[in-house]
Amino acid sequence: MRRSLAAAVLAVLPALTVPALATPASATPPNIPSASTAASRLAALTVRPESNHSSYDRSLFPHWITVSGACNTRETVLKRDGANVVTDSACYPTSGSWYSPYDGATWYRASDVDIDHMVPLAEAWASGAHAWTTERRRAFANDLGGPQLWAVTDEVNQAKGDKDPAEWQPPRAAFRCTYARAWIQVKWYWGLSVDSAEKSALTAMLGTC
Fold first, then answer.
1. pTM for this structure?
2. How does pLDDT run across 40-60, given as a tens digit for each residue?
3. Neighbour count for residue 1 (Cβ, 10 Å)
């Protein structure tokens, strides 16, 4: 009887521990298209030179806005994309881990992580957002419905700055396919244009998929 009971307990234990072991190191933002769909959407984008650089101001894209309770957009992405994230009453992460797909690094302090706009705000401005309303720019800067916001290593995000894929690509080559697919999706969804060098770089990146 005791052996049967012990065997039953041991049989249950693995099932109980699987969820903890299966917890992903990071989450992925939603609605990243397949490579073939991304290629079709890239072909559909308007190709034209960037413009209106001199009139850009980051304050024209209000962020981070309150999403739920005490949590703003940045904190929401940190909770979404981190593993075992614990927050305080102000929604600031006090513990957890974040995997940065751009460079393959894992961080254990929220202060080491930036929330990157896949398509930078200045890039969006020069690609058509200069003609948008402030309300539309706010929605773009806080877009949680697509692959626009990523939790990544702060120094890598700073190195990227406002550059497009013709000027900067993730140092982790294995991620460039996903990066291109996400970039194209954001530009396609929001109706933004691409310049010729950017389109060529994205085409080459899709070739790595």
1. 0.87
2. 999 999 999 999 999 999 999
3. 5
